[in-house]
Request: fold
Amino acid sequence: MNKPAPLNCTQCVDRLADFVDRELTVDEVAQVEAHLDRCVDCSQEFRFEGAMLESLKATLRRVRAPESLMARIRRLIA
Reply:
């Protein structure tokens, strides 16, 4: 089995969102992890994106949709 080629920084950063969302293949995950292990700049970008995602999740947990919207959604589903 051939070992996947190492990623450059552009390729790694392009895959970070999918990496965080767990939408990469096993080989792609290995490539991104290998790059993050050796690249300080991309590791910082990864930590930044992770922190932003956690902040967004925390904010969204506190936001409630208006009851009128929820009622409309329920009607559409029914």
Remarks:
- The chain has one domain: 9-77.
- Helices lie at 9-20, 26-38, 40-62, 67-77.
- The chain is about 75% helix and 0% strand.
- Residues 9-77 form one domain.
